[in-house]
Specification:
The chain is an alpha+beta fold and 530 residues long. The protein contains 15 helices and 21 strands. The strands form 5 sheets. It has a 6-stranded antiparallel β-sheet with strand order 10-9-8-7-11-21. It has a 5-stranded parallel β-sheet with strand order 13-18-12-19-20, sandwiched between helices. Strands 1-6-4-5 form a 4-stranded antiparallel β-sheet. Helix 1 packs antiparallel against helix 2 and helix 10 crosses helix 15. The longest helix has 19 residues. The radius of gyration is 37 Å and the shape is elongated. This is MAGUK p55 scaffold protein 3.
Length: 530
């Protein structure tokens, strides 16, 4: 086998490689192809030119400005004509010093039916068309060639200097396939957007096409209450960029920031109160299984946590969330059932607990009524005096309490803690008003809204009437009850359970409880931060 010397060049190395090729049965065609390539005379010439250039590089030669004769003598054996040498001599005489002009960049992007992923604005001082935003994941962002602050001059050869921003946006949106931009790069290009790890639960519905304030309706991101949004940038205090979790679209969209949404709400309220008349909206009272088990006025006005309350309709914007999974050394999460009229959630709760009393339990309520002969203290109820009950209510020890047939009833915080201390999952059914009191890092409640499926019927009627005075059927009452709870407390609900019948509802609830113990769920960030 030939041995390469220390001074062997690339050409000699390839020549030896060619001589060593031995095709076998499995790769015969590949070996023949490689041998033909390495044996090509033009490749040999290129390799020798490469070696000559490397020699000149090591010698640090000075540029030849007026004559290429010496260089030609070395390369004539490898070139078929000398025209390139005369070109060299001509070009060498020219002056290529940079001129003091604006640098222009031609950018060619490929987009299909998707938006370009950038918004523009008119600079008030200069009148220039400036790139205002780059949408994360869009065509412009993926290219890495367009940046915030760049000045746009042409789109597919059409000047945009004197065009209005809406005309330019239409020109960009109508361009399909390849799109060529002529831009003046920003003096100081901003860093590429860094994808953040901030997740928000939307507490309201948003439709960009109905929002006249959005800078670009095409770039807006529609979402519904309860959607989880990944906010990729909050650089703009008015419009954030976000993606909707589970969405296949990689491009981020614009959503109103928390501050902007709140300020818009307050502005709307100021306008409403400045009107010369007032609108009075009356609704049906929320009816539940335990209609007598109501929160006291004092409890409804109590504080439910630090900062803005997500249950306060004045601040229904976003709630920062994170993924949470219960650990083996942690107490089980609290499961809270709320129900509209006809849901019969107490029956559903008792049935699930009876099936597996070792894993699930109910918080034993307190009462001032006398104990019956068959009842045991701490099993059916905690029996206390009226004085003791009033003192506990005054000290906010109940999550809710009320009066029924001149007796007091209430569910205490300690009753929930007692169940969790036994490493059991506590299931409580409460009036929706109690949710604010339970939404704490200690309990990490998982809220299930149970509502019965209400079939359409016009026959059965009751004495109930609507706000307008018309008679309402019982089924209409059920439907109205569900609508009202959803409007007031739907943003606090983790799961809606449509109850077809007791058996199917019980099976669905059981499945939810089992997943709570082994899967991760979105919870407010404040519940897991230490």
């Amino acid at each position: 086998m030939p041995v390469l010397t220390a001074g062997a060049g690339l050409h000699e190395t390839l020549a030896l490689l060619t001589s060593q090729l031995r095709p076998d049965a499995n790769h015969k065609e590949d070996m023949v192809f490689l041998k033909d390539v390495f044996s090509e005379r033009s490749l040999g010439y290129l390799m020798k030119i490469h070696e000559k250039l490397r020699q000149y590089e090591r010698q640090s030669p000075t540029p030849v400005l007026h004559s290429a004769s010496s260089l030609a003598e070395d390369h004539v054996p490898f070139m078929s004509h000398q025209a390139v040498l005369s070109v060299h001599d001509t070009v060498a005489q020219k002056n290529f010093d940079p001129l003091e002009e604006e640098s222009v960049k031609i950018v060619r992007l490929v987009k299909n039916k998707e938006p370009l992923g950038a918004t523009i604005r008119r600079d008030e001082a200069t009148g220039a068309v400036i790139v205002a935003r780059i949408m994360r994941g869009g065509a412009a962002d993926r290219s890495g060639l367009v940046h915030v602050g760049d000045e746009l001059r042409e789109v597919n050869g059409v000047s945009v200097i004197h065009k209005r921003p809406d005309e330019i946006s239409q020109l960009l949106s109508q361009s399909q396939g390849s799109i060529t931009l002529k831009i003046i790069p920003a003096i100081k290009e901003e860093d590429r957007l860094r994808e953040s790890k901030v997740y928000m639960r939307a507490l309201f519905d948003y439709i960009p096409l109905e929002d006249k304030a959005t800078p670009c309706q095409e770039a807006g991101l529609p979402f519904k209450r309860g959607d989880i949004l990944q906010v990729v940038t909050q650089d703009d205090p008015t419009w954030w960029q976000a993606k909707r979790m589970g969405d296949s679209n990689l491009r981020a969209g614009l959503i109103p920031s928390k501050q902007f949404q709140e300020s818009s709400w307050h502005l709307t309220q100021d306008l409403l109160f400045s009107l010369p008349f007032f609108l009075c909206i009356s609704g049906l009272a929320v009816a539940g299984l335990r209609r007598s088990f109501r929160l006291s006025r004092k409890d409804r006005q109590g504080s439910s946590g630090e900062g803005s309350d997500p249950g306060d309709p004045d601040f229904l914007t976003y709630e920062e969330v994170t993924r949470y999974q219960q650990r083996s050394n942690e107490r089980p999460r609290l499961v809270v059932l709320i129900g509209s009229l006809g849901a019969r959630i107490n029956e559903l709760k008792q049935r699930v607990i009876a099936e597996n009393p070792h894993r699930y339990a109910v918080a034993v309520p307190h009462t001032t009524r006398p104990k019956k002969p068959h009842e045991k203290e701490g099993v059916e109820y905690h029996f206390v005096t009226k004085q003791q009950f009033d003192a506990d209510a005054l000290n906010n020890k109940f999550i809710e309490h009320g009066e029924y047939k001149e007796n007091q009833y209430g569910t205490s915080i300690e009753a929930i803690r007692s169940v969790q201390a036994k490493n059991k999952m506590c299931i409580v059914d409460v009036q929706p008003e109690a949710l604010k009191r339970l939404r704490t890092a200690e309990f990490k409640p998982y809220v299930i809204f149970v509502k019965p499926r209400v079939p359409e019927s016009r026959r059965r009627r009751s004495a109930a009437t609507s706000p307008g005075g018309e008679k309402m059927t019982y089924r209409q009452e059920m439907r109205q009850s569900a609508i009202q709870i959803d409007q007031q407390y739907g943003h606090l609900v983790d799961r809606v359970l449509i109850k077809e019948d007791s058996a199917s509802a019980c099976a669905e609830l059981r499945g939810i409880l089992e997943r709570l113990e082994r899967e991760s769920f979105w919870v407010p960030v404040s519940w897991v931060r230490t």
